[in-house]
Amino acid sequence: MTNTDIPLALPGIWHGGDYNPEQWDEAVWDDDARLMTGANWNVATLPVFGWASLEPEEGVYTWEWLDAVLEKLSARGIAFCLATATASVPAWLDAAYPDVRVTNESGVKVWHGNRHTFCPNSANFRRLSTNLARKIAERYGNHPGVKLWHISNEYGNLCYCDENCAPAFRLWLQERYGTLDELNHRWYTRFWGHTFTDWAQIEPPITIGERSMNALRLDYARFASESLLNCFRAEKAVLREITPDVPVTTNLMGAFFPLNYHEWAAAMDVVSWDNYPGPDAPYAAVAFNHALMRGLKEGLPFLLIEQSPSQQNWQPYNALKPPRQLRLQSFQAVAHGAESVMYFQWRRGRGGIEKNHGAVIEHHGRTDARVFREVSELGAELATLGAATLGGRTPARVAVLYDWETAWALRFASGPSRDFDYTREVRGAYIALHESGIAADVVSPGANLAPYDVIIAPTLTLLSRPNAARIVARVEAGATLLATAYTGLLDDTDLVYENGAPGALTEVLGLWVEESDALPPPKTNGIRFAEDFAGIAADTTFRADLLCDRVRLETARPIGVYTDDFYAGEPVFTVNAHGDGLGYYLASRLEPAGLQAVLRAVCREKGIASPLLDGDAPPPGVEIAERVSPDGTRLMYLLQHGADTADVLLTAGATYTDLLTGESMTSTARLAPRDVRVLRRAA
């Protein structure tokens, strides 16, 4: 059974979220069920943190309270995203089994009282967590309201303990490398005399000391991500055994550094994620996270399983979302592939660290408050949209490559620049495309690249030979590759390729990197176009900064040259014909306007542009996204993030209907601040 054999049974967009009834007196449960109907909720996630309430001591279960809550919600027609309740470990478990307690990166055992305090390699945790999952599945698996299983919550607790993780890591390494000689070779342990002569000498990389062994840290990151994933897999196996037709998920968190979500997504039936942008987060940066989550399953829709209806207590300033901001952010998620709009949480807690976190029902408990009204109105709009958007795929011909292992390798390295941030670089490329109205998927270098005519590889420093071969094959078949500075330097064990950068991409790019210069701020360089290029006039200049590769051309030819320093006049932007495709190399980081101009030009060569009139970019602040349903229906979402009314020029001669208002329009769509249009083009 594959991950797509178990579809979500959604008659329309899910609207609901986390409900923690165990935190409240039974007297409010009837009101909660009634008010959820008033808020137009159709799904509730529970009991995510309910382990201690369901199993107050080992082997003793108290199901009555959950039975009652599910009965009350079912009576109101509310479905369940039923959690296995294994996110927080009960105090009795930590006391009885000390090996369950996690050891942090400083080598210190963490006491009970935090969230995610379990060691993923503890046999006791695995036994007790899968046992609880089994008990829940056996009791509720046949309940008609159970539509989705939610395992644990926001995995991320890395452990560095001696008793569980160290021996498990050594076994993991033995399976990966076979012999110590091979490990020593791949880890380059002759540097500083770090050579190992016994497996027992290898320890988890706690923060004490300089931690100079980058390959050890990289492999431990892989091991730690896989260790937590194995916890998910263990619970999923139990659920699948008992309820083979109910899909299984857990909630991811965007470009979350510790976990390789590309591997996680392969184990999930549907990707779910939590969207908590800061008050000043650029809309295109939020869109990048949606595209990253969508790309985990190569374009399949996902679930927005958490967002705050108002405030986020853990940010530096607990700012309110102004009116219509929640609606705008929710439809942005739907525009990029979400099949649900869900919140954390239903009621704002009276105590604990998240008592200042927003909720649908605030501390005052009133339903005539702004947030409750906005949630209710949004739920009604989503019901109006109905199933029209379900299953819709983004019609992207551009892929932006994002790789967790590159993020790890660069974070663990010394150099090239303390200002270098891999995720920021990839996000910048996506933003440049998105603000141009060009649809792009964010996918793994190991993904199926066949659907894409343009492949953007921003600073893809760590690149395995198989992934490089996959990229090269797509270029040979006719695609365009654009790689940027510091790409292709390392293989998958953090070893520099024998020929240096760009390593396995040397032939497709037609050049080699002689040196890489890191520019400390405020120092900059620049690019000057030596010739006209796809709409960019000769002698156009843009600022460049951060990194500057000095490249030597073999079969590539220069398009743009550096403007400054001792390498002024040397190539910085090049092109190379390879097979039926092209390989471009941008050897420095350009200012946003320059990067946008280059990416638009590269896409223009392949006939890729915005779906608006003449392929123009949308007005500043206006976001455009499309979804194409399985029956071919194309919906265009327009979202106004700007402060002014904007007019968007639509394709000439076409007629559109706004599915939210029923309004018909032809040449222009007008959007007020924080407005949303969902346009269906007439046949």
Task: Explain briefly what this protein structure is.
With 683 residues, this protein is α/β, with parallel strands linked by helices. The chain has 17 helices and 27 strands.
Question: What topology does this entry show?
Answer:
Elements: E1 14-18, H1 29-38, E2 43-46, H2 51-54, H3 64-75, E3 79-83, H4 91-96, H5 123-140, E4 146-150, H6 165-177, H7 180-187, H8 214-242, E5 248-249, E6 251-252, H9 261-267, E7 272-274, H10 283-295, E8 302-306, H11 325-335, E9 338-343, H12 370-385, E10 398-401, H13 404-412, H14 422-434, E11 440-443, E12 454-457, H15 465-476, E13 480-484, H16 506-509, E14 511-518, E15 525-529, E16 541-553, E17 557-562, E18 571-578, E19 581-586, E20 588-590, H17 592-605, E21 622-628, E22 634-640, E23 646-649, E24 656-658, E25 664-665, E26 668-671, E27 676-681
Parallel strand pairs: 1-2, 1-9, 2-3, 3-4, 4-5, 6-7, 7-8, 8-9, 10-11, 10-12, 12-13, 13-19
Antiparallel strand pairs: 14-16, 15-16, 15-17, 16-20, 17-18, 18-19, 21-22, 22-27, 23-26, 24-25, 24-27
